[in-house]
Amino acid sequence: MRKKPTHIIKNAHPISRNNVDSLNNDDQELPKENGLHKPENVSSAQSWVSAVATRKGSDLAASGAGNGLVRLWAIEPDSKGIQPLFDLKLDGFVNALALAKSGCFIVAGVGQEPRLGRWGCVRSVQNGVVIHPIRLKEEKEDL
Description:
Blueprint: H1 17-23, E1 51-54, E2 60-64, E3 69-76, E4 81-89, E5 93-99, E6 105-111, E7 128-133
Antiparallel strand pairs: 1-2, 2-3, 3-4, 5-6, 6-7
GO molecular function: U3 snoRNA binding
Keywords: Nucleus, Repeat, WD repeat
Region (Disordered): 13-42
């Protein structure tokens, strides 16, 4: 039996103005926030979610695409929904994600192209691994 998703988030990684500027230097219309855009203007592969990671036993999830962001999400209890927490700037296509058990950092595999084909290319990016520290709430200092 096939499992069905509990939540679907449409346009989770829209293409931002920075991505369009890097792809097109002429004055062309920006893609709309709902994900509808002219295919000749930008690569739609940049908005595809290519990596998802969760932290076992918590309400934290992360998703990555080629739009220059790794997005962290809060999963609300009792199937009420998923809310975006914040975005981490990261250039290139995010091909792999992992969250540390401690929740203190996120590891992302980044490349010039998507891992499942050559649907787009960001030549200015170097293939590699990025470790980004995250702090989800303010830590209290002992006085």
